[in-house]
Amino acid sequence: MKNLVTCRVVGVMELTDDFLNEFNRYQVTKQVWYVEDKSYKVKDDYFMDDWSPERKIQVIEELRRCLSSGGVVVAAWLQKQLVGFANIESERFGSEAQYVELPYLHVTNEIRGMGIGKKLFSLCCQEAKRFGGKKLYIAAHPSIESQSFYSAVGCSPAEEVIECIFKREPLDIQLEKAL
After folding, report:
1. Cα 92 from chain centroid?
2. Distances in Å between the alpha carbon of 63 and those of 14, 38, 111, 113, 161?
3. Is the pLDDT of residue 144 over 80?
4. I need a surface site. Which of 3, 19, 150, 160 has the fewest CB within 10 A?
């Protein structure tokens, strides 16, 4: 199935209000990573994530803003169905302007674990380099599964925690990936 998936950069005209209609964000989390006394630990924490139609519209609007400010959106399709997407902001930040942010990277629930996220991540790394970034900055979902993915693609704890990003989702784990 992985070979049937196509990944590419998306233009603003493709970010229609129905772009995420069939996308399934659903995720059950049973354990999470957290930081305590500067150490990473695991604890039980059961919750579900899902996106309402209103939340999907908010995400589409954020992706449009990303494009209008010079960022990049990439997406994956299985035939004509959207199965994953990610975006890179164009602004560089950090003490040496080394970071470029990866705000979103999602694969639809039904086909996670098939390499689609890795393809999207790789495309995002290429785009971040094009922007002059030295590192990707990721505020990653704390679930064991999400953290395993980011570890598998070479991410590590962020050397600098960017306060304004941390405050958006204080439970997320702040990561970076050297480009």
Report:
1. 17
2. 11, 33, 22, 24, 23
3. yes
4. 3
Give the pLDDT band of residue 91 (cuts 50, 70, 90): very high
Residues 104, 73: contact at Cβ < 8 Å? no
Distance CA 125, CA 148 (A): 18
pLDDT at 35 over 80: yes
pTM, rounded to two decimals? 0.95
- In the sheet that 92-93 helps form, which strands lie side by side, from edge to edge? 92-93, 99-101, 135-140, 173-178, 156-157
Which residues, in sequence order, are CB contacts of 80 under 8 Å at separation 6+? none
d(CA 16, CA 63): 11
Give the CATH number of domain 6-178; options: 3.40.630.30, 3.40.800.20, 3.30.70.2760, 3.40.30.10: 3.40.630.30
